[in-house]
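Repro case for the chain-ordering regression, as requested:
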Amino acid sequence: MALLVVVSAETGSPPGATVSGSVYARNVPMAGAVVSLVPEREATFPPPREHPVIDQANLRFVPRLLVVRPGMTVDFRNSDPILHNVFGPPGPGEGFDLGTYPRTHSRSHTFTALGVHAILCNVHPEMVAYVAVVATPYHAVVDTVGRFRIDSVPAGRYSINVWHRHTVPFVQPLELYEASRLDLTLELEVSKR
Amino acid sequence: MTTIAGRTLTRLARVRSVHGRRMRWRGVQGLVALGGFFTPVWAMILVGPAPNPHEGLTHGIPVFARKYRTSCSTCHTAAPKLNVLGEAFRLNGYRFPENDRLLRRDEPVELGAEPWKDLWPRSIWPGEVSGTVPLALRIQNDAEFAREPNGDLRWTFRFPQEIYLLGASTLGDDISAFFEAEWSRERNVDVVQAKLKFQDLLPGLPERALNLWVGLQNLYLFTFTDRQIDRAARQKFRWQDYQPADLSLRNPGTGEELRSINTFRLGQTQPAVEFNGLLGGRLYYGLGLAQGVGDRTTDDNNRKDLFYKIRYKLGGLRLDGRYDPGGGPVLGRGGQLLDRSLTVEHFGYFGGQPVEGEQQDNHRSFGVSARLLYGPADVGVGYVWGSHDNPWGATIAGKTSHSDFFAKAEYLLFPWLIGSLKFDSFSVDVPASVRQGGFTEGRHDQTRILPGVIALVRQNVRVVLEAEIFTEHQASSELNLQSPQALWLRLDVAF
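-- result from build under test --
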């Protein structure tokens, strides 16, 4: 686990800090990793009211990765002309099972426990989605070339957390100053399994 | 944009480790060190090796090349001869030693998503099958120039000589499969290998410490000079193919011929169960039970053969595919992966085989070899000794022993051109009791020199020119052997 930082300052930039960077493991871009900045000082960020949707289409969960805040409700829709099930094995939370339902139907679950929840369909074992519950609005998903960017982060002390399903969780303290620009290179450790 | 590096950074951002220690700041060039494993080996896998001087990177080649979108030379010096990374890949159940799932470029068909593992034993452990058809073909065409007993050289086109159907796939994290079927002029269609590899058999043990390989398989008693692992040219060494039935003795008084029916060969593939593993990254062990000879459907006796093998590699890329701290690869002028290492191997094999009169011929063999890789040079020597207690069964009592001293020197003149010289001295001791029984004619001693040249026309197309020169042969006078006895020109292609 390693971290390299390049910092710059620009005049006329928007308020707050910008944290961007690249995420690699063994020099492979870690697309789909979730990067979040969690304030050290306790802060409450009320969850948005809208319900994000995870669809089941063409035998896949779409999107395969969703980042939400605690207390957010996610709607699970079935758009396939076949029955699908939605259940979450016990992990960060207690687990849940929304049952099996046909096309056009939708059922919901509210995520409260922090962490990454796996979502499975017991009719089609190859289907999987991940819902990452993070206690901060400052988060991003790493793109296909390994880059991410989080804007307008207030100055303060944070911990930067990175999750990817194939790596060991990455956690580092980070202190941000007003209008600072951080470009991080994060090297993650591949998990054995 | 102004980029500020160094100590002044701390005025703008401060990063501490999780334990409260300050991170050590490094320059941009420090990324290599921070990455830890960004060695040229992994760079080669990720971006491909240096181009063949004849063309750019090739992609349309067999199973693993398709899976990783990489070229043959990532794992082979001249296929099937493996380089050190290819051997680590093989030992690791056809996975790159580090980071395999990040390196693969195909999209496997998942047989259950990964989180189902968390539900075991209430779920089936997830696995996968290859997203592409995991099959490849290898075709060998030989032009053979062999000397006839009358001294003439006969010129034969063996087009093709052999065709292989090769299949290999990982079936999830720890299981993989390998299949090899061969069509040849001599044996028609034959399944040569069909095996499963269960890696990291028991949780809690060090990584790769205990694996189980089951199926019809090459026992790889030596990897040095093995037909699939370390054979650049055409010919095998004699100890691999020798069978007691090869020794033909004759009684000149009666004209009677004495020949064992024991057709056991150390180099044959067999149904076998093998436990193997790596200890400390450099010590490899294998211990197994094999069927012995037989028809592969029913054993021909009620016992199994036992074998063991030990290998230790000093220097270079470790057998687990990692370098020791401070170590790193040796790259050839063409970017190919070379090594500086010394590998010693030892094996023992103990078996029994039914012979005439429902008797058993118990046999055992031992071997020791040493191989030095020094950049483009690959040299080694080996010695195999074996004995059979009762090869003729009820016909005549007598114990034979045989030995083979062999050596090999190869040099990579260019990434596409290898010079090869092999030496093989094989002898069989015929017991005095048999000679006294009147069988005074016939022996099976032979000494050969095998010079050769291997040229890669493409990474998956090679041409081999190899000669066989006998300095001693049991039938020298009969066959009118002269030098060279035979010359082969092989065109070998895999796709």
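Ordering looks correct now. Residues 1-61 of chain B have pLDDT under 50 and may be disordered.
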